[in-house]
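Hi everyone,

Forwarding the result from last night's run.
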Amino acid sequence: MNTNVKTSISMETQITLSESEARALVAIMSYSSEGFIRGFYVQMGRYYLEPHAHAVPGLFDSVKKQLAPAIAKVDAVRKEFNKQ
């Protein structure tokens, strides 16, 4: 008997952030992911982050690609609004 079983689980999540929370997250993600990991390990140890370190670069990229442009739009609208 030849059996081929494939199992996969995926997850997507959405979070709601205030503008100041989004700006703080983008500021944190402005550092390189490698630098963040090194600093985290020095300050807090490896135990919690090390099993997930492979996902940190993707997290940084996602935040930069999704939040940074949204914040730029808010800034542009605010700037235009303040001209009036």
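Residues 26 and 68 are 6 Å apart (CA to CA).

Cheers,
N.
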